[in-house]
Design brief:
By secondary structure, the chain is an all-alpha fold. Helix content is 84%, strand content 1%.
Length: 505
């Protein structure tokens, strides 16, 4: 786990630097200079592009992780040979993009009718989703190719820093009317084009990829190719469900309530998604390790990885959720036009809890995807989507944005419950341990202590109230986590950092 820990920490640092840029963008640019409707437009364009690439990539991201160990060999002189693997990771998404471009264009009329009444601005820029999706698609493909080669920091920096800085520039150009709304949408697309270009340049600079296909390898490994095609076909079907579910709420709010509410929901989502940010860095490097362990049928390593990754993410994500909720009133207080966005206060807690589920359980879901029982994921993805559609339809008309958030939480809770149970029965790997329960109890205690503090020890000054509660409650939580050794991996990293600082001192 040494390389996992090192690169995960580096990746997390880069990610949170990106979060800092995103914080400036969201809190001091978007909410000050853009209307809620304009924020909603940018959000629904990105969500539509995200949904598009989830389908168009034909499962390439997961296929890269699962099958890279099968294509990689040691050649003469100890040099790694990949048998044209990179070439196929470029061609397959291109075919998928062409296919779904045709479908997307054919669906314009019914979708325009659905969105047109309350969100006509999105209909106006309907086709701008295509170039944005294309660049996002290959940014993802290049990033995943780097991750399986154990290079996550630079691609993470491209995604979290360069992309966010580019988006900030695009928002500023529009805020100060350097460009009109047409130029603004084009600028958004250009940001992802630059990100994809940076990733491909970095990949080739490593000297580990080649555009040359290895036809002899394909002819001599027909069984492997058949497995690859079946797996890709499975992922194409499952992507319809798994990629659709996270974006459904935005689309339903856009269609049923209007882009202004989509913008408010987007701000709440941005705050909540901070809970799952560590997941991106940890799993980017741990997922290839998991795929290799499953390939070798190393049950002890599979169990070790799942337990260590999930417990670490539960502790980190839980502490972030607590920190956000302890300071939620302060967040909306300092937010420009905060009264408008404070209507989504409860949405942040509900979505934050949902993001905690996603962060903790998604790695277990990956274990199922990489195993020979991956077909179960298809069934569960359809369950997730069906629940999302049903609950959004039922809850949004009655509860508005809170209904969308509750739909998200309930759907994912049931989805991951099925995943965890199936992994326990098929791979024979228990996901949760007593350690997980201790961490969960700590999170619940902190949230309840915050409620009791506000109820019985109120402090009128919002800055002072947030500062004292954060220091006391979060400081106490960190002390308990350290003394009880709730995450041995984190404790070890802290000790190592302390030792290095002592040496330098």
């Amino acid at each position: 786990m040494g390389i996992i820990a090192k690169q995960s920490i580096q990746g997390t640092i880069v990610t949170y630097l990106g979060v800092a840029v995103g914080f400036v963008t969201t809190f001091f640019v978007l909410t000050r200079f853009l209307s809620a409707e304009e924020i909603g437009l940018s959000r629904v364009l990105v969500d539509a592009a995200t949904l598009f690439i989830g389908l168009a990539q034909l499962g390439t991201s997961s296929s890269i992780i699962r099958f890279y160990p099968h294509f990689r060999d040691q050649g003469q002189g100890g040099k790694t040979v990949e048998h044209g693997f990179f070439f196929w990771t470029l061609i397959i998404p291109l075919l998928g993009f062409a296919l779904f471009t045709a479908i997307y264009c054919a669906c314009r009329e019914p979708l325009s009718h659905w969105f047109g009444e309350k969100s006509s601005l999105f209909v106006e820029y309907y086709y701008m989703v295509l170039p944005m999706a294309f660049f996002m698609l290959y940014q993802t493909v290049f990033e995943t190719n780097a991750n399986v080669r154990m290079h996550i920091v630079v691609p993470r920096a491209v995604r979290e820093l360069i992309t966010r800085i580019g988006l900030l520039v695009a928002y500023l150009l529009y805020a100060f009317r350097v460009v009109d709304i047409d130029g603004f949408v084009i600028a958004l697309c250009s940001v992802y084009a630059v990100a994809a270009l940076c990733n491909i340049i970095y990949l080739f600079s490593l000297g580990e990829v080649s555009l040359r296909p290895d036809w002899d390898f394909l002819r001599n490994n027909r069984q492997l190719i058949d497995q690859y095609l079946r797996y890709t076909g499975f992922l194409l079907i499952s992507a319809l469900a798994s990629v659709l579910a996270p974006t459904l709420s935005s689309f339903f709010i856009t269609a049923e309530m209007g882009l202004s509410y989509t913008g408010i929901f987007a701000i709440a989502t941005y705050i909540a998604v901070m809970v799952s940010i560590p997941y991106r860095s940890v799993t980017a490097i741990a997922a290839p390790q998991l795929a290799n362990a499953i390939k070798n049928n190393n049950l002890s390593e599979i169990t070790h990885l799942i337990h260590q990754v999930s417990s670490t993410l539960l502790l980190i994500g839980g502490m972030i959720l607590c920190a956000i909720w302890l300071n939620i009133d302060l967040i909306f207080h300092i937010l420009p036009n905060g009264d408008t966005y404070a209507t989504a206060r409860s949405v942040v807690l509900i979505l934050g809890t949902s993001q905690l589920f996603i962060a903790v359980c998604s790695f277990t879901s990956s274990a199922l995807n990489y195993s020979r029982f991956y077909a179960f994921s298809l069934l569960f993805s359809f369950v997730l989507t069906a629940l999302s559609i049903l609950l959004n339809n039922l809850l949004i008309p009655h509860f508005g944005m809170e209904g969308a958030a509750m739909s998200n939480l309930i759907s994912y809770a049931l989805y991951f419950a099925l995943i965890v149970l199936t992994v326990r029965l098929t791979i024979k790997t228990p996901t949760f341990t007593r350690q997980h329960m201790k961490i969960l109890c700590l999170i619940v205690v902190i949230l309840n202590l915050n409620f009791l503090w506000l109820e019985y020890l109120p402090i009128q000054n919002i800055w002072l109230s947030s500062m004292i509660r954060t220091i006391v409650l979060m400081g106490g939580a960190c002390l308990v986590a350290w003394r009880k050794n709730l995450s041995p991996e984190i404790n070890q990293q802290v000790r190592s950092l302390g030792e290095r600082l002592k040496v330098k001192g």
